[in-house]
Amino acid sequence: MLKVGVLGAGHLGKIHLRLLNQSDKYELVGFYDPNSENADKVSQEFGYKKFSSITELINAVDVVDIVTPTLSHFDCAREAIEAGRHVFLEKPIANTVAEAEEIVALARRHNVKGQVGHVERFNPAFIATKDMIQNPMFVETHRLAEFNPRGTDVPVVLDLMIHDIDVILSVIKSPVKNINASAVSVISETPDIANARIEFENGCVANLTSSRISMKNMRKSRFFQKDAYISVDFLDKVCEVVKMKDAPENPGDFDMILQNAEGVKKQIYFDNPEVNQNNAILDELETFADAINNGTTPVVTLEDGTEALKIAYRIIDCFEKK
């Protein structure tokens, strides 16, 4: 079992602590949180060992799980990597692209593995459909959230939209050609609502909308490709797959047949895969353990996290130019 320690015992940090404690792939050694009052409370309530410094925790483990505010990701990761520890970093990988690229370089130099917590890659609805997403030419995403002061210290692009950026980059294997975006700050000092149009060199267009001041929560992505439409509901963890094929010569009474202007007939049918429910956070942590133990590539690499951050900042740059 890999010895693991958690940096940060806030809302998400406590979830990581609980899941690592129940995992049979890790031995949870303890945690460090700079807020001594919170650290004492977490230690007393759950019985996790509290470390007095980041360095002390790093020296006691094989893997460092960094669930601190984004501003501190780089410093925490650098110290852990330079000590030869593998790192799991919550998204976004770092506060700036330069920091992210330095983390990638450090990990290569010290021959350690890293993974970024883009948890939607482990969403069961996405897992059930990702192999069906083949060369999509139009993608539309909506990630809407009710207002929560937590996370408003960064633009909505880094808080919410970056989830969809990572998912899109994982299925569209083409360089980004052009980005247009706009945003509005309604209640925060940083944008609360944003829309981005990403054009890829292969002709695909992705239209992303994110809001953190909506009346209801929504996390849906729709992928349109030749002869297929795939809808993924990341919130309710369900999916819908609609496909088209050449119509049979003698269709049945209940077959859905469409005919285009050229007279070509297509049959519409549903091919909805089974969605196997899971705990996405536990899965992302445990697949990282597998990558370390087996010497394989993590599902969401440090490079993946860096590319998502680059696109996020290109979107933010569009706001600032307007």
UniProtKB/TrEMBL annotation:
Domain Gfo/Idh/MocA-like oxidoreductase N-terminal: 2-118
SUPFAM superfamilies from the UniProt entry: Glyceraldehyde-3-phosphate dehydrogenase-like, C-terminal domain, NAD(P)-binding Rossmann-fold domains
Domain GFO/IDH/MocA-like oxidoreductase: start-end pairs: 156-216
Molecular function GO labels: nucleotide binding
Listed Pfam families: GFO_IDH_MocA, GFO_IDH_MocA_C3
InterPro entries in the cross-refs: Gfo/Idh/MocA-like_OxRdtase_N, Gfo/Idh/MocA_Oxidoreductases, GFO_IDH_MocA-like_dom, NAD(P)-bd_dom_sf
Top-level taxon of the source organism: Bacteria
Listed name of the protein: Oxidoreductase
The species this protein was found in: Flavobacterium cyanobacteriorum
